[in-house]
Amino acid sequence: MKIFHIAKAIGFFLLCSWGLPANAQQQGIADINQPEGIYAATIPCADCRGISQVLEINSNKLFTLEETYLGKSGKVFRTDGVWKVKEGKLYLYDEAAVKLVLGIRDGQLFELDRNGKFIEGKEKTRYRLHRMEKAEPSTWQLKKDAGIDIIALGNEPFWNLDIEEGKQIVFNAPTLDKPVILPYAKPLQQEKALVYDIRTEAGRLVAEIRYQYCSEGMSDRIYPYAVKLHFNGKDYSGCGVILNMPTQTEQLNGEWELEFIDAPGQPFDSLYARVKPSILFNPETHKVGGTTGCNRFNGPYTTDGRKLEFDLNKTALTRMACPGDGERIFLDNLKKVKRFHFYEGKLELLSEDKVVMRWKKKI
Question: What class does CATH assign to 248-361?
Fold first, then answer.
């Protein structure tokens, strides 16, 4: 029986790891002006075991950095910002402040010190960012085509989870005699996670799928979601990918309420004490409407990938007299918008170099 379980585990490992990239971190970077990719490192830390970093640099001049202080609380600190190349170095900006400065040495990307110099000494190699491969839905095209919406997998022990929205959830591990098939249940939507909690005669399964970079520890692949799973008294951990989800532009659909605007020295609650601005995207007409916090507006918008622009010259605006600077600041920032992205379910509108508006979905 023991030999059977060992053989089953080996087969399960091969099934889960099929198609994983070979030694992706050996890929270098030749041009600092083209740094796009996903990187990982564990850099030295004065009062912890190290700082685990995952950095994703996008072609739209945006980046995401997640940092975890190992041996401490395990809390993940996330920074979304813009990147620029200046004087042969890569600068990552959190709002207007410099978060990190990176440089190339021997075809590899390194974190530099505060003076923009390469860090020397016996630990210098620990400041190298290893280029990784991002887990993409296309890797699991057969499952995607079969209607599977979310997959998750892990090891120690090896396990996998397939979620087919509206139909079923299938959990499998080598210690099970056969896969456990559970009826689909709508997840609880938390701020940073989806939580599935299903009770049947087969047992109780709780799966938390959190928006956080993840490595399953078996390859050089970085996943966009970390997964914790509990089934019949046993805990599992691993990574996940959403295979079928709305496109970026489809996620704009619906009505949003403003919760932040770039207005230094102007408290948000005093700018919009009576009514908070809102915006409603209509993808069929490519029209947007809403309120400035005072007057209502309606006009066209254009999207291309993550690019987004509003044509205020063709935007109609009611003419009610408005107290304060709220409406002027709103329209000035709307003119600056060039791009958009989503973070923790919030819609962020960006100018060339910073976030100028942040919105939450109206329910």
Answer: mainly beta
